[in-house]
């Protein structure tokens, strides 16, 4: 089981955490929503709970709720800049389908 980061995503997280002056890494999860069933939830982790599963990639901790891991195991997190837009994106090998807008997925 693993969650990985591209170099771009790892650099974005490190830069933002340094700028904030606090936080321990990136928190990745899911929520039931959207027209396809699930959507990603991404935040900066302030702390690591006893029940969290922690991965480390390129010097960045990725904190995941164990219930979400079954649906996002193997996901690669990227950070993409396109003109003035920038966002995290996800390559999840478990996805069976996505909605037309790309905001939600099903497994």
Concise overview:
This protein is α/β, with parallel strands linked by helices and 107 residues long. It has two helices and nine strands; from the N terminus they run E-H-E-E-E-E-H-E-E-E-E.
Q: Could you walk me through the main structural features you see in this protein, from its secondary elements to its overall organization?
A:
There is one protein chain. With 107 residues, the chain is of the alpha/beta class. It has helices at 7-20, 66-72; strands at residues 4-5, 25-33, 37-45, 53-57, 60-64, 76-82, 85-91, 97-98, 105-106. The chain has one domain (4-96): HesB-like domain (Hypothetical Protein Aq_1857, Chain: A, Sandwich), CATH 2.60.300. The chain is built from two helices and nine strands. It has a four-stranded mixed beta sheet. Strands 1-6-7 form a three-stranded mixed beta sheet. Strand 8 and strand 9 (105-106) form a beta hairpin. The longest helix has 14 residues, at 7-20.
CATH superfamily: HesB-like domain
Biggest sheet layout: 4 strands, mixed
Provide a count of the helices. Answer: 2
Helix and strand succession?
Answer: EHEEEEHEEEE
Based on the coordinates given, report the CATH architecture.
Sandwich
CATH topology: Hypothetical Protein Aq_1857, Chain: A
**End-to-end span in angstroms?**
17 Å
Oligomer status: single chain
The radius of gyration over CA amounts to 14 Å
* Helix fraction by DSSP (H/I, runs of at least 4): 10-25%
Summed over residues and divided by their number, the pLDDT gives a mean of 88
Report the sheet-strand fraction: 35-45%
């Amino acid at each position: 089981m693993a969650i990985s980061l591209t170099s771009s995503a790892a650099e974005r997280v490190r830069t933002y955490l340094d700028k904030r002056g606090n936080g321990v890494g990136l928190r990745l999860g899911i929520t039931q929503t959207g027209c396809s069933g699930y959507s990603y939830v991404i935040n900066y982790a302030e702390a690591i709970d006893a029940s969290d599963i922690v991965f480390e990639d390129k010097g960045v901790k990725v904190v995941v709720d164990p219930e979400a891991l079954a649906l996002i195991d193997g996901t690669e997190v990227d950070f993409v800049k396109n003109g003035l837009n920038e966002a995290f994106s996800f390559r999840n090998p478990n996805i069976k389908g996505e909605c037309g807008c790309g905001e939600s997925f099903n497994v």
